[in-house]
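Example record

The entry below shows one chain as it appears in the dataset: sequence first, then structure tokens.
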Amino acid sequence: MSRPDPDLERAFAALRRQEQREGPGFAPLWQAAGRRPGRPARPRLGAAAVVVATLCGLTGLALWRLQPVGPPPQSSVPSLSHWRPATDFLLRTPGREILGAAPPLGRSAFRFPTSSANRERRPS
């Protein structure tokens, strides 16, 4: 870890002292914000009442729209359990029926033609 820079610390301390001298304190600003001229306290209560009434109205409207008005409509769309992806055919590979089962033991999985012509051509 590097050592602190004393010149940088002195510069920041001088800047902090300058801000404390020139800038206003927090308490006077807070008090001034509480007593703004020309703004009575009543409009805040009125604005809050308007907001609450609007929220109640919107909530009531949403609840009224959510209530069912009869039997649910019958959909012509199949259920999710019957859905098949459009690219399902890509998973059907050639020779899938051969790969789907284990070959019987004792016999070759491949069938070679047996004819008399093949028997005669054997090298001796």
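Notes for this example: The chain has a mean pLDDT of 77. The helical segments are 6-22, 26-34, 42-66, 96-99, 116-120.
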